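In the previous chapter we treated chains in isolation. Here, by contrast, the input contains two separate entities that must be folded as one system, with a combined length of 696 residues.
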Amino acid sequence: MLVIKDLHANVNGKEILSGINLTVNPGEIHAIMGPNGSGKSTLSAVLAGNPVFEVTKGEVYFQGKNLLEMAPEDRAREGVFLSFQYPVEIPGVSMVNFMRTAINEHRKYNNLEPISASDFLKLMREKKEIVELDTKLTNRSVNEGFSGGEKKRNEIFQMAMLNPKLSILDETDSGLDIDALRIVANGVNQLKNSDNASIVITHYQRLLEYIVPDFVHILYKGRIVKTAGKELALILEEKGYDWIKQEIEE
Amino acid sequence: MVKQQYITLYQQYAHIIKEKSAPLLNSIRDAAFKRFEELGFPVKRDKDYEYIDIQSSYDHDFGLNLNRVSLDVDPYKVFTCDVPNIQSYLCFIVNDTFYANPEPKISLPKGVIVASLNEICTTHPDLVKPYLFKNMDWDNDSNQAFNATFAQDGLFIYVPKNVVVDVPIQLVNLMHGNDDLLAVNHNLIIVEEGASVKLLVCDHASNEKKYLANRLTEIFVGKNASYEHYKIENTHNQTMNLGTVLVHQDDDSRFLSNTLTLHNGITRNNITVHVDGQNAEAIVGGLAIGDKTQKIDNYVSMNHLKPNSTSLQLFKYILDDQAKGVFTGKIIIKEDAQKIAAYQTCKTICLTNTATINTKPQLEIFADDVKCSHGATVGQLDETALFYLRSRGIPINEAKLLLMYAFVHDVLEHISVDAVKDRIRLLVEKRLRGELSKCNGCVICK
């Protein structure tokens, strides 16, 4: 589904990603862990097409298509979804209008008619339940005045609405209390099936108790330095990152 | 000098102007002319006119209809004005002349008058006299002195005590002619105690001629009365519009104005409010969308003369290409006007490096127990928000549109008539999409 080959990326002239290689197949969940500043969020931003980052080398293929050549909106409509670490507040754009526009743009991309008002409302109702999102929130402006937990739940709600093939969750657990974490993880698990895949970026093992990964990768200095099964997360929890750093430097 | 042209013009034709106007309208004409002769047009060295040159608007050789030659066509038939979905009491000012609606679709409540000011000055001088020119400051304001020198007609609205006019009155200011024209007119609106009325003003130009309009509106909002003023300007880039709105508010009254500039050449809106009563509310909002070389200069002077009132100024600008915006917002609070809450916000998005905005808050507060604030921002579209929308599959142009629309939406929220709000929303959306070229977004002018 996703093939990343030797990906290098800069921000403001400074190299953050220094040769990432990663393959994600349908049905898989990949966790990416790593110390602060290792490039985790950069990787997710580059995959989503954030223009702030400049890809200097390497290739990314998504379902056989060259992802790096696509505009962010096309990546989204091809089925890539990024759950933002810091969801953006957009005063004046209502959640309803935002979601209707997004859904219809996806449909247009696939040569489908715009969604009917009643189907749209039904869809909203259905998906809100997945993340236990308050009805009132959907009548408000995008993320405006949402609490940290509500913002993250709203990300998963959008993911549910858009039904992506590849979802990238960028530190979706940060700033969540244990109940919100459970709700968010629950939502992600409900959306999981054998055709889609997830990349879960996290600092902590905690989230992985709820969203069980098939692979855990450790990102350090812009490279994946270790890949193993879910047990790797437990080792990290116990020992921290120092042993990895030592191993690399030896 | 351009001033001299108009001095000569008046000296030559004053007798005709007077002959064709009601005596009441002539009552200050010579005095106003004398002041204009001394003051001249506003120039850039005047602090209130420093960013956009108004004087040069008059440079061009415009025709004036001093002889009151009436139009050879009936505007109600020729200009099928039917802003969709808006039920309104429609009337026209074509160039500078009021044309009463011969067959209004809506009947007005008893006692309400919508008529030509020139006619009313003759038929009901006692009704007009206590108000006419009373809001003006033509002795100090050259623009007003010019208006009083040349104005011969305009719209007159009278809403008697405790009468509520539900349906908005719609005034279409239409510039139409075979030659380049200057129109000067004077409107007078009297809303008596406990009465309520809404006026929707649409500024249009029917063809590609050069037009200059100097329009002045005096508004008197009585005790516990309410008046709403929506102005939509949708002309073309050969049109210059100098609009003056002078408001006097009594106790417990409410005044709301919303000025939307969608298409124009050069526009100057002067809005002066005298909140001369307690527990009154004044909201002055505006939205300007400019591209190419459009110039939009909004000037607000909010004067609190009595205590316990509130006011808000809220303006938004979206400027593209080389468009130029100016906002001057004055808040003047007199010594005894305690417990005033007066706020002001002006926000601008410049879409290009060549678009410019000058915003100037001027607060003069002589009372010591008031709440006042002012704020101005100038920026571009938020890149992070843009990426967020795109990351959900919304194409860049659509995402920009959503953000621009979101940027202006709070100005539109102040519009109380839903049909007007919907219509304006649609116009704004079309304008932002670039689909609205001069008049044809609206079916008023064919």
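DSSP finds ten helices and twelve strands in chain A. The two ends of chain A are 34 Å apart (CA to CA). Compare these points with the single-chain example from earlier in the chapter.
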